[in-house]
Amino acid sequence: MIYTSEAIESAIESLSSLPTIGRKTAQRLTLHLLRQPKEDVEKLAHALLNMKEKVRYCSHCCNLTESDPCNICTSTKRNRATICVIEDPSDLFAIERTNEYFGLYHVLHGALNPLEGIGPNELKIKELLARLSDEAVQEIILAMNPNVEGEVTTQYLVKLLKPLGIKVSRLARGIPMGSDLEFADEATVSRALQGRVEA
Amino acid sequence: MIYTSEAIESAIESLSSLPTIGRKTAQRLTLHLLRQPKEDVEKLAHALLNMKEKVRYCSHCCNLTESDPCNICTSTKRNRATICVIEDPSDLFAIERTNEYFGLYHVLHGALNPLEGIGPNELKIKELLARLSDEAVQEIILAMNPNVEGEVTTQYLVKLLKPLGIKVSRLARGIPMGSDLEFADEATVSRALQGRVEA
C-alpha cells in the first residue's frame, strides 16, 4: 500500500494474529502505540520477551512458572494429599480466588477432543500418573470445564484413576450463585436436582 | 500473587493498558503467547519496537511515515492543488480505499475538544496554515468525523480558511449507501434533505 509504512503494516499484521484481535482493532492498537511515549512501547515489548524467556512448565504440576518446581508445589502450607486437575492455567486463578482450596494442582493443558486430534497423549496425563506413583496422594478433584470436552476428559480420568484406589471427586454442578432459578437452563436445573443435598 | 509469575503478571499489566483490552483479555492473550513458538513472540515484540523506531510524522502533511516527506507528499501522481484535512491517520485509509481522491492530505491528529483541553494549539493547524502560504492550494476538503467535536473543528477551520480566498468544501452528509431510509436517524435524514441535489 502506498499510503502506509511497512513498519506499521507489519505491526498491524502481528497484532491481528492474536486471538480476539481483528484487523480493525490491530489498526487502532497500532495507532495508539504510535501516540504513546517510546518507553511504554519498549516496556510492552520487553515484558512479552521477558515472559517468553523466563516462563516454563513446572516439572511437577505442569503449571506455568519461573522457578521449577513452582511456588505452589514447593509451598509448605499446601496440603500435599490432594491434587486438583484443571484444563488451563487460567482455571487455577479461578480456584485460588476462592481462598478455599489449599491442595496442589495439575494442569492438563487442554481437554480431550478427538475431532481436533487432541487425545490423551496431547495432554499432561502421563505426568499426572507419574505423580501418583511418587506422591502420597489421597484425593483427586477433577475440575474440568462444564462442556462436552470437559465431560469426556472427566470420564476418561475417572476410568483411569478409580482402579488405583484413590478417591476421585468432581466439582458440583448446580444453580450458580446470584442467578435466578427461572433463567437457569434445563441441563443446569436437572444437574442441580440430581445433585441435591440434605438441607 | 503466589500462584502466578512476575513475568506473566507484568506482561498482563502491559497488555491491559492498551485500549479495548481489559484484564481478562490481557490474561487470555498472555496465555496464548506462552503457547506460541518463541519466534512468533519475538516477531511481535520486534514489529512494535521497529515501528516505534522508524515511524514519525511527515513534515508536510503530519501523516505517519517512515520517509520524510511521505510517499503521498512526494508522489508525482497526486494533485497538489487539493488538500483533504482529516482527524486521524486511520481516516486516510478510509478515503484512499475509495480510489476516488488523488489530492494531498493533512492530518490534524485530533479534533477540537475544549472539555478535554484540546484547543487549536494541540492540533496540527499551524502546520496546515504554513502549507497554504507555501503551496499553490486551490481547494481544501474538510473531512472531519460527523460528531460534535468534528463539527466544531469544521466550523473553526471554515472561519480560519475562508478569508484566505481558498475554496473550502466539506464531505456530504446523507443517507449511507446500503441502508434503509426507515432506519436512518432524524439528524441524518434532516441533513440529507438539506443537502438534496437535483436528480
Overall description:
- The structure is a homodimer of 199-residue chains.
- In chain A, strand 1 (56-57) and strand 2 form a beta hairpin.
- The mean pLDDT of chain A is 89.
- Helix content of chain A is 43%, strand content 13%.
- The first copy, chain A, is of the alpha/beta class and 199 residues long.
- The longest helix of chain A has 17 residues, at 38-54.
- Chain A has two domains: 6-54, RecR Domain 1 (Helicase, Ruva Protein, domain 3, Orthogonal Bundle); 58-198, Dna Topoisomerase Vi A Subunit, Chain: A, domain 2 (3-Layer(aba) Sandwich), CATH 3.40.1360.
- The first copy, chain A, has helices at residues 6-16, 23-35, 38-54, 71-74, 89-96, 125-134, 148-161, 186-194; strands at residues 56-57, 64-65, 79-86, 103-107, 139-142, 167-170.
- Chain A is globular and about 65 Å long.
- Chain A is built from eight helices and six strands, in the order H-H-H-E-E-H-E-H-E-H-E-H-E-H.
- In chain A, strands 4-3-5-6 form a four-stranded parallel beta sheet. The first copy, chain A, has a two-stranded antiparallel sheet with strand order 1-2.
- In chain A, helix 1 (6-16) packs across helix 2 (23-35).
- Chains A and B meet through helix 1, helix 2, helix 3, strand 2 and helix 5 of A and helix 1, helix 2, helix 3, strand 2 and helix 5 of B.
